[in-house]
Amino acid sequence: MTESNLSEQEQKKVVMVRQGGGSDAVYGIGLIGAWVYFIGRATTSEDRIQGFFKGLVWPAFLVYKLFVFLENK
Description:
- By secondary structure, the protein is mainly alpha-helical.
- It has a domain at 21-71.
- Helix content is 77%, strand content 0%.
- The chain has helices at 8-18, 22-40, 45-56, 58-71.
- The protein is elongated, with a radius of gyration of 20 Å.
């Protein structure tokens, strides 16, 4: 079945499947790196748990620090 034989809705689904993927890999590598950083610096079990959750939201820390840096320029 070629793309010309698909309905408009099915064509949109095909396009959606073809997009993306690159940012997922960057986030995944960053996630692992953040876990290594945060959990590696932890000294207690509580710090390790916090490090795990901080690793999940590392882009928020990055954007926040970027805005603080740009504000001071």
